[in-house]
Prior knowledge:
By secondary structure, the protein is an alpha/beta fold. It has twelve helices and seven strands. The strands form two sheets. The protein has a five-stranded parallel β-sheet with strand order 4-3-5-6-7, sandwiched between helices. A two-stranded antiparallel sheet has the order 1-2.
Amino acid sequence: MARCTAPVxxxxxxxxxxxxxxxxxxxxxxxxxxxYSSTGSSGGGQSSGLRSGSSARPRWSRSGSSAxxxxxxxxxxxxxxxxxxxxAKLPDLRDVFLCHAWDDRQGVAxxxxxxxxxxxxxxWFSEKDVxxxxxxxxxxxxxxxxxxxxxxxxxxxxxxxxxxxGIADKELSAxxxxxxxxxxxxxxxxxxxxxxxxxLGSRVGLSTAEEPMASVAVKLAExxxxxxxxxx
Length: 232
């Protein structure tokens, strides 16, 4: 008998739900409904929000972008995009603050930072921005205060570190107090995250289980791109 894959793999995206042998039919039905809505409500053309049956085009996504968003991602990222636009008049802010486990600083955290930097995103990254002799907590505090969006790189290393209430835990506590937080789940699951941090686990974010880190970086770059903000 087929079993639902949600307890192991999660259904955080439309692709994950569609791949489940139990929920796949429901997901396909939902996709068909979205496809019908996107054509039927606009006289035969796609609406401004939906690109295809199980994907959506957020208003801030660039024309011709390779990024493919699920409706859930668009809903979760829209309030964060609104905050980015509200902060657009403060040009001295960094685009993102990258919260990560110490163990990941030379690995996946650096990979994500470098990808974002190659896309023109200015990010606060401890390996680059904490100068010798500067108190670490004070540097982190200033980095948090001077960034528009917080990114939490959720890895097995971070899940091990958080219960110890170290630096990463202090960063996360500060980020959770703001409505500008995007979790990036890498090589773990939302179910494992919720066991360690129910608050962070309740936030819909992005996952490298569904797309490569390079695609995640493109979505983050679009999310914080100030040249796409409306003139106020």
